[in-house]
Design a protein that fits this description.
49 residues, 2 helices, 0% strand, flat
Amino acid sequence: MESITHDMAYKPERVFALLDEFYPVPTGKTLRPTPFMPYRNYSPVSAYS
């Protein structure tokens, strides 16, 4: 796996095929389960910056 991800621009479909094989998306879901899921799409901005 490391040798494939070393140069991902060469054939990215290989990396995504391995991702689908080792970490499939559960049936009826759109996302893979992760240990941490960020809840914001942006970083908070300080009022003092």
